[in-house]
Amino acid sequence: MDPIKLELYKNMLTSVAEEMGVTLRRTAFSPNIKERLDFSCAVFDDTGKMVAQAAHIPVHLGSMPLSVLAAIAHTEMVPGDMIALNDPYRGGTHLPDITLVAPVFPDKKEQQGKNQPAFFVANRAHHADVGGMSPGSMPIATSVIQEGIRIPPVKLVRGGALNTDLWELILANVRTPEERRGDIEAQVAANRVGERRLQEMVTKYGTTEIAAYMEELRGYASRMVRARLREIPDGRYVYADVLDNDGITDEPIEIRVAIEIKGDTAVVDFTGTAPQVRGSVNAIYAITLSAVFYTFRCLAGADVPANAGCLEPIQVIAPEGSVVNATFPAAVAGGNVETSQRIVDVLLGALSQACPDEIPAASSGTMNNLTIGGYDASRGKEFTYYETIAGGMGARPNSDGIDAIHTHMTNTMNTPIEAIETNYPMQVVEYAIRRGTGGKGKFRGGAGVVRALRILTDAEATILSERRTRGPYGLQGGEQGKPGRNVLISGKKEHQLAGKASVSMEEGDVIRIETPGGGGFLRKHRPDTIVKKA
Fold it and tell me: Are 128 and 134 in contact (CB under 8 A)?
């Protein structure tokens, strides 16, 4: 393989995913997608292995390959088709994340008698409502049935024509059908752009050459990860941390990992992690795999292509029926957004024993999910607002953590104040850095955020958040970051809310989210033990 051409293909394929993302953002209706960029796009080979991704959201991208494989397994595709799915137990993650998968067929000359896709493109977007028991579809649920409409892998588009029956079924089960229609149409448009760009590449270079370089890119990523693993001392590194609770009981939920490095391979074993729980913090296997992909991809360095090859040297063991590999009908809305963050925390905690000078302290460890919905009389329609709120980054071995930033499995933007007040019956009362919340050390953790919203109509709000009972851990003697806090202000009274709560709000009420700071870093000698519990 020509190394210069390999680099060109890496960038060409990445640019396809990036242009898909630009199209999705520009054509979407909801502020969650248009402003916060809560979506991801990627390119896959003919077997469904990821070969390129845009720099979008880690929790989406690492899990999307299983969605593409589910689409391939459950449906026979022809040119013009597009498969929609969101069912966590049939290729999805949690219900608000709707994935669209499109096959890419070369022209008849290139097919050479084969009627099989040469490539696939896919995008995933978080929809601000997909039905369920509370506005925003992130409820304090005990079953996935309560969380919204479930879509198995089905054809939303058949041969280029919209499947109107399925379309209307989906829109009939959501609170904001006009917004959902616009966002799904934007997803369709994004995939069409990806198809066209790949077909243009086929016309110029041919399917055979493109496929060969896709395979080489995966092999290149695998070799680079293996080379990085060889630099890590062989050993078994164990770490454990807890989720605050599941929102149903107050019991903490332990996540435990043992990472065994041997030569150029790694075994990541979650045996000992708590069984799946009644609340919605259960993560399906795809989420756990996504967190592992993200962590080792970060460890390998920025030059490594982000594709399926990164996971080839890594074996992941996640016991079925545990909170990191839940089974139907477990509720999973929070597993995608909160448990994924804690999985990263325990992975980095374990790796900090092997690479003490490279791993940062824990970041805020939560996406601070807030959904608000009700009837907007001024606009004459229902509304659903969804946002994840930033926190503090953990201190790094050589510098302070960053204040007020989305970290690890989330990579979204904030919703601008102007967008909130233009699109929703709400006013932003306060939006500020939560000073002094980063953990102390030679390098301090980043500070969290204060976000306070006044509701201008009666509404229902749901919070799914973590790190409210204990702060993110520090490393090498650094102190914990300050835990977060949720408050409902009604008149002159303040009511402290739990980390996971659903509340009815009256016109004029204020909901205030104070997010955690990151842990501190105080350089010390390397610990004698390689077993540590947070």
Answer: no
Contact 99, 154 (CB under 8 A): no
CA–CA separation, 232 and 70 (whole Å)? 35
* C-alpha–C-alpha distance, residues 224 and 230, integer Å: 10
pLDDT tens digits along 272-304: 999 999 999 999 999 999 999 999 999 998 788
Q: Quote the tokens at residue 353.
A: 């024993």
Burial (CB count within 10 angstroms: exposed 0-12, middle 13-18, buried 19+), residue 6: middle
Which residue intervals of 284-428 are DSSP H helices?
A: 285-300, 333-334, 340-354, 417-423
Residue 65 CA, chain-centre distance (Å), reads: 13
Q: Is the separation of the CB atoms in 514 and 467 below 8 Å? A: no
The answer, yes or no, to whether the previous bond of 416 is cis (omega within 30 of 0) is: no
pLDDT of residue 55: 77
Q: 100 and 127 in contact (C-beta within 8 Å)?
A: no
Residue reference for tokens 């914990």: 480
The residue ranges of every structural domain in the chain are 3-221, 359-523
| DSSP bridge pairs for 85 | 99
Tell me how long the chain is. 534
* pTM of the predicted model over 0.85: yes
**Shortest CA distance to 408 belongs to which of 468, 309, 342, 482?**
342
* Closest by CA position to 330, among listed 290, 279, 291: 279
Could you tell me if 367 and 337 are in contact, meaning their C-beta atoms sit under 8 angstroms apart? yes
pLDDT of residue 532: 41
**What number of CA atoms fall less than 13 Å from residue 38's CA on the CB side?**
25
Provide mean pLDDT across the span 479-490: 98
pLDDT at 529: 40
Q: Tell me the average pLDDT across 460-480.
A: 97
Q: At what angle do helices 164-171 and 177-205 cross, to 10 degrees?
A: 140
| CA-based torsion, 104, 108, 109, 115: positive or negative | positive
- Note whether 34 and 28 are within 8 A (CB): yes
Q: What is the pLDDT of residues 97-139, one digit of tens each?
A: 999 999 999 876 555 556 789 999 999 999 999 999 999 999 9
